[in-house]
Amino acid sequence: MKAYTYVAPGRFELLDKPKPQLQGPRDAIVRITLGSICTSDLHIKHGSVPRAVPGITVGHEMVGIVEQTGSEVRTVRPGDRVTVNVETFCGDCFFCRHGYVNNCTDPHGGWALGCRIDGGQAEYVRVPYADQGLNRIPDSVSDEQALFVGDILATGFWAARISEIKPDDTVLILGAGPTGLCTLQCVLLHRPARVIVCEPAPERARFVREHHPTVEVVAPQECLSFVRQRCERGGADVVIEVAGAGDSFRLAWECARPNAIVTVVALYDQPQMLPLPEMYGKNLTFKTGGVDGCDCAEILRLIDEGRIDTTPLITHRYALSEIEEAYRLFETREEGVIKVAVHP
Ligand SMILES: [Zn+2]
Ligand SMILES: [Zn+2]
C-alpha cells in the first residue's frame, strides 16, 4: 500500500509498504477512506517532535472502515465506519478511568499514531486498543463531517468543556486556525452571552464573520483595548488561547477579567512567562492542555443532530498520490486553505 512516511528530519515521502497486520487481541485494522493533515505533522517534518520515529507513516486525522479486529475487540466489527482517535489509551488505568486519557500510563499510550507508530496518511492503519480509539460513525454522518472528530474537534470540545462557560459569560478565543474554529463551534454549544474571536489573518477573520455572524472578530493589536472598553467586567470571563503565537499567552491573561478562567490549548515553541507580580490580585485560574479525546461519541451525536458542522473547514481535496502538493499548500497557507482532505 502507499504510505506517506517520515524518512528523515525535513523529508516525507510516499512509499510502498506492506499492509499492516493485527499485532494484539485489542487491535483493529482500518481501511482509511479519508484523512487530513495537521500542524503537528508539520512539526514532525521539521524535526520539532523528538519522539517521532523515522520510518513511521505519518497522519493522525482519519476516518475509515474496520477491516479486521483482534479477538478481544468488542465495540466495533468489520464493516463499521469509524473515526480514529489521535490518542491511544488503555481505558483501564487510573487516568483513563477518570477521563484523563491524555495521561494514560500505558507505555504505548498518548500520541502514538503517526508519531511513534504508523499513522493514517496511507491506505490502511493498525489501531491499538480499538475499543477506545475507534467510534462508530452514524449512517447519516458523512466521512467529511466526521473527519476532525478524533483530533482538532475533540480538542475544541474538550477546551470548551473544561472552561466552565456560564450563560452570561463573554468568551474570548485567541486564534481562528483549524483548532480555533473547532473550539469556536464547541463554545457556541454552551450558549455564552457573547463570543469574541481574535485573529490576525484577514481571510480567517472573514471566515469567522461569514460562518458565525453573531461572533465579534478583532485583530490582536486591538484585542486588549477592545475587551477592556467593551466588556462590562473589564475583560473576558473566559479566555481560550488556541493561537500559540509569540505573544498570545500574555494577551490571553491580560484580556481576562479578575477571577477569570484562562484555558491554554495552544502548543508553544518556546517557554512562556508567568509574571506573577504583574498578575497579583487578578486571581486567575489557568487550565492547560493536552486534549483528553474521550468525548468522540458525544461529538458524533452532536454532528448527527446538526449542531456541529466542520465541513466548511475543508477547503481543498486531494488524492493520496498528490499528498506532497497538499502539504505544500497547507504549509504555505495559500489560497485561503484551512484544512485539506486526502482520499486514499
Ligand atoms: Zn493533530
Ligand atoms: Zn490508560
From TrEMBL:
GO terms for molecular function: oxidoreductase activity, acting on the CH-OH group of donors, NAD or NADP as acceptor; zinc ion binding. PANTHER family: NADP-DEPENDENT ISOPROPANOL DEHYDROGENASE, ZINC-TYPE ALCOHOL DEHYDROGENASE-LIKE. Keywords: Metal-binding, Oxidoreductase, Zinc. Its cofactor is Zn(2+). Gene3D superfamilies: Medium-chain alcohol dehydrogenases, catalytic domain, NAD(P)-binding Rossmann-like Domain. Belongs to the zinc-containing alcohol dehydrogenase family. This is Alcohol dehydrogenase. InterPro entries: ADH-like_C, ADH-like_N, ADH_Zn_CS, ER, GroES-like_sf, NAD(P)-bd_dom_sf. Pfam families: ADH_N (PF08240), ADH_zinc_N (PF00107).
